Amino acid sequence: MSAIWLFLYVSGLVRLLTLYRLDLHHPATLVLLIPILLLPWMDGLRRHQAWLGSKATLRVAGLLALISAIVLARTLNLGYWETHHLGLAVLAALLGLGLSLVAHAFPRESAGPGLWIWIAVWEYAGTWHPILIAVGAGLSAFLGGFGLWPEGRPLAPSRRQVNPFWIPCLLGLVLPKPWFDFHLEGTWASAMAAFALTTGLASLPRLRDYLDRIPNLWVLLLLAAAFVVYPSAWFLAWAMAVGLLWGILWPRLPRPLPIAKISLGFFLGALVSFFLHSNLGIPFLRPLIWWGS
Amino acid sequence: MRRWILAYICAALAILAVGLPLRTRLDAPRLGAPAIARAGVAFDVEFVTSLPFVPWRLAAQTVERQWGFQLEHGGQRILSHRSHGNRYWITLADPTPVQGSYRRPTDGLEHWGEGTLPDKLTLVHAADFPSTGKEAMLERFVDEMAVVKPQAFLASGDLAYDSSEAWYTFMLGQFRRLEAMGIPVIACPGNHERGGWARFLSHFGPRTTHRVDLGPFRILSLDSAHGRDRLTPSQFQWFRRQLDTLDGRVPLVQLHHPVFPPGAAILGDGEKSGGPLFGFRDGFVRLCLERQVPLVLTGHWHQDAVFDSTGRFRDDTADFPGTKFVVTTALGDALRHVTRWPHSYHGYRLLLFEQGRLVRYTQDLPGQPSPTPIASTPSGTWLGEARR
Question: Three-class SS of residue B296?
């Protein structure tokens, strides 16, 4: 569920932030950010308030997430997000809170590509309209909350370990490049789908055996290189390369997954990425941002 | 994989729950990006549906019903159609001869039939509109256009300092007045449209980078405020593709941000007027030179300026070879003194062409040489002359 939370919800929220320019003085912004702001306290809350992890609570959370996602998507499908609209912000926050509760209850990830294909399908649906990705997040929360989430063999963690904050932070720097490039075009969603699909591919047993042997340093260097080298005309190939690298790193994150650290790292990375891509006037930065395009 | 079947069935149901009843969004042509086509020349209607993979006939009926037009009416016929996911393109053509310069849209579709345009064409360019409280300025500008009678009006961003629905309603009303005078409006967004981005997109559609063919011209509108003062790789590629396929047309370019910084011509701190174009500037300038773009029209500084392709501020002459990178003063927002150019007033720019060749882009000012370099037309000039 952590991958769902990260790639169907958090990444969608960051994209929203960067596309529609949230006004930090407006209450709707605060409401939108509640699920993210609560992250550092979620584990503590769940420990002290055991009912938050109960079956009934998770069912309510899952149902609430699904209903919020569908209402939100019915309102916004084909349209644009009015970021000052408090009602829309409340719906997005309910979706986020519901999914967050379910994701914290099921931090385990299954082995195999099923999860990543599911994410890729919803990302691809984002080419029709970005809000459909939120429906994927809501539906996943619903399936998880009601115990219908297709669980497989648990993912065996890799012998090599990577930092659960800085590595997602690096991914957050890299992954949004197609968002900033393609803006309102659905093309960025195809890039996200290609990314997820290749991450899934990397989890195929034989390939994973081979990929597990690659040292962290090489993978991280290549991922960092993908921040600088971005051939816009070859965005699918670029997204697949990033997906493969993330597919190598994913099993190397500590288990159980520290959702808060991973999410906040990714969130921070994506915001820094937005800042860097939006300030090309800074000397020396310009050639580093869109090299290869 | 069987475990996933239920999940995918639920996914299909959820998408149906979101998309039913079927709705559409018309993406092109829209106000600000009309389709202008001669009799018999094909043009595309582009729209998306709330559900993917809908049969095109059903999608077409829905878009007609929702947006209030008929794809086939009079002599207008569907030539072909294609679709991808929930996106549809329907190619139309109308062979009915057009009397005069244009046949204006008669329904909810921004399709202008192009007739015989005069050899001497006038286009008007403006940016940085007045805002709430200064509505009369925009009304007077539209009144003035009834005197100037340009063949098109190019609006290069910062149309809505106030992103309220009331302002958009008023501004769109003025654009409709222009259209009623037979003046198509071609618009691109500026940085201030980002303040109410959803509203801008709702009214002008999501094609913020677009192409309009008009007479001998191919007018390319870019979105330089995407992020901050920059083009993006995909937008730059689009621009290059358009210049690669001009079909003999003369390219004119509009974007909000000035391409060059004031450089040595800056006055003080330039009133912190911000950006020239940062991303892809060198490539952009090179392309403009290579493809012989006569004019790149911008705003943003609220003061007139003109640069040549080396980035030199040209207050010495109005006539120099190569692309003219033009900054037009504010139509109604606060005036600034960004460069050493001493004049500052509200105005717009008249662009005169003969057989597609630029012959004039500045306005002679009293007491200045003729042709005066840089100067745009002060608001009210032509309205005043008409009254006299």
Answer: strand
Residue A172 contacts residue A272 (beta carbons within 8 Å): yes
Amino acid identity, position B295: L
Q: Which residues pair with B348 in a beta bridge?
A: B377
Tokens read off for B384: 């005043």
- A contact residues 96-125, partner B, Cβ 8 Å cutoff: 114, 118, 121-122, 125
pLDDT at B172 over 80: yes
B250, containing H or E segment: strand B250-254
Residues paired with B293 in a beta bridge: none
Residue B1 has pLDDT above 70, yes or no: no
**Amino acid occupying residue B65:** R
Q: Computed over its alpha carbons, how large is the radius of gyration of chain A? A: 18
Alpha helices in chain B (DSSP H): 3-19, 56-67, 135-148, 165-180, 197-204, 233-244, 281-290, 381-387
Q: Do A79 and B198 make contact, defined as CB atoms within 8 angstroms?
A: yes
What stretches in chain A show pLDDT beneath 50? Answer: none
What is the C-alpha to C-alpha distance for residues A37 and B109, in angstroms, rounded to an integer? 46
Using CA atoms, how far residue A162 sits from A1, A104, A146, A209, A282, in Å, is 20, 21, 32, 17, 31
B197 interaction partners in chain A (CB closer than 8 Å): 19-21, 80
Judged by CB atoms closer than 8 Å, whether chains meet at A139 and B233 is answered as no
The minimum CA-CA distance between B320 and chain A, rounded to whole Å, is: 29
A positions 239-278 inside 8 Å of B (CB): 277-278
Contact (Cβ atoms closer than 8 angstroms) between residue A234 and residue A194: no
What pLDDT is stored for residue B378 in this prediction?
A: 96
Amino acid identity for residue A278 in this structure: S
Model confidence, pTM = 0.93
Q: What is the pLDDT of residues B284-332, one digit of tens each?
A: 999 999 999 999 999 999 999 999 999 999 999 999 999 999 999 999 9
User: Residue B295 is encoded by which pair of tokens?
Assistant: 């004019």
Look at the block and give the residue holding tokens 């093309």.
A187
How far off is chain A from B348, nearest CA to CA, in Å? Answer: 29
How many Å is the Cα radius of gyration of chain B? Answer: 22
Contact A20/B at CB under 8 A: yes
B90 has pLDDT over 60: yes
* Cα dihedral A260→A261→A266→A267 (10° resolution): 50
**What is the torsional sign of CA B189, B192, B197, B202?**
negative
